[in-house]
Amino acid sequence: MNFDLSLYPSLFQGVVPSVLATCDAEGTPNITYVSQVHYVDSRHVALSRQFFNKTSLNLEQHPLACVELLDPVTLQPYRMKLRFLRSETSGPLFEAQSLRIQVIASHTGMSGIFKLIAADVFEVVSFEKVVGALDPSAEPPPLPQLEGPTPMTELRGLQEISCRINRTRDLDELLDVTLAALDELFGFHHAMVLLPDDSGRRLVTIASRGYGESGVGAEVELGQGLIGTVAETRQIIRVAGINTELRYGRAVRGQLAPAQQLRPEIPLPGLPDAQSQLALPLLVHDRLVGVLAIESRQTLQPADWHEAFLQVVANQIAIGIENAALREEPEEPEPTTPPKVPVAGRAQRRRRFAYFRHDECVFVDDEYLIRNVPGKILWKLLSTHRLEGRDEFSNRELRLDQGLGLPALRDNLESRLILLRRRLEQKCPEVRLVPTRRGHFRLELDCELDLVERA
């Protein structure tokens, strides 16, 4: 019994399926694959029971089992002999395993069908390395190095990120600085921050890094996929070897269809070839204000310790979003600015904006741009500029406009303006919202406008 399972975290990430062996009362063996052996503590593990009819029957007759796990880095197999203790159908352990399965089920369109029945808890009787499984004459494969290596410890890295966040002046800068720090200091090259939209039924990407123009504006339905599940449950979820999990879920789906009417498979947001994902809820007093999501093409990144580390970063982002929503900018004196002089001899491009009143969508040149409150804000700015010739606006003015439908408290106006500003940068760079001073911005146009409103 001289072993400690906590020293082998890579075995329990579910990157490579494990082989489980049981037998019935007469000694007839049964072999099956399990997607993940869940680490409970240094002497206990849990297996997720979904379709293990024969395995469950065997354990009732003969409570011993053997499982073989494969280290995804070295390919070295390890073998555990287990004694079945109990099945849990509720509680923290059950919920932790259920969330992982719920993520895969939502991606493959099998929510409510592909689900956890019970978490079967086992005592680990023995744990050993399988000797001779690998060619002893072969050189061991080099351990993979995380991209963007840094000599920083976790504490110093957290200190640096905290200092950078503390120097930011607004939410826009806070989001950019935080995602850049996670990239530069710890090699998280693909990350995004999503906020709930006005309906509360979906999340919208307000800031991203590593996705190019496809990041900002991407949407996720509440309860769908990793990000939607994290938003709905308000719990951290990390999935390693996600392609393996999806293949397993699709195999089950293939056996069920067309006998059951299944929902279409939900595409993964972000990287199409992500090997691991981590999503954290942004909470203020148990109230969801957003989600921080990180992806990697490396199977074991993020690592175990990243969850606690990134939770601290997520808390700072959540507080920044909350402060931006509650802050009422004081009026500042109007600065003296020279009048704009039009550039002679340069023909300007003409852009056509269409506002659809029934679903509050704005299209530019027949291409979708933005919707809901940010769409109404844009239409107000463009309409006011056309009617009054005005290009200076303030946050206070928008808050007082009842036609925009902003709530009295926590209106998230700043985050909506960030989303609008970045969508314009992507889809129509000739129209810009340029901050001039605290709580004020200018509408700058390098094009002629055609405005069409449709009921």
How would you concisely characterize the structure shown here?
The chain has 455 residues and is α+β, with helices and mostly antiparallel strands. 30% of the residues lie in helices and 30% in strands.
Explain this structure.
The structure is a single chain. A hairpin with a 5-residue loop joins strand 8 and strand 9 (202-209). The model is unreliable at 143-151, 262-266 and 338-345 (pLDDT under 50). Helix 2 (92-107) runs antiparallel to helix 5 (225-233), helix 3 (154-166) packs antiparallel against helix 4 and helix 4 packs antiparallel against helix 7. Helix content is 30%, strand content 30%. It has helices spanning 53-61, 92-107, 154-166, 171-186, 225-233, 242-256, 306-326, 372-388, 395-400, 413-427; strands at residues 18-23, 29-34, 37-41, 44-49, 64-70, 77-88, 118-129, 190-196, 202-209, 219-221, 237-240, 276-284, 287-296, 349-356, 361-364, 367-371, 392-394, 431-437, 440-445, 447-454. It has three domains: 5-129, Electron Transport, Fmn-binding Protein, Chain A (Pnp Oxidase, Chain A); 154-241 and 273-326, Beta-Lactamase; 349-454, Arc Repressor Mutant, subunit A. 34% of the residues are buried. The chain contains ten helices and 20 strands. The protein is elongated. The chain has a seven-stranded antiparallel sheet with strand order 2-1-5-6-7-4-3. By secondary structure, it is an alpha+beta fold.
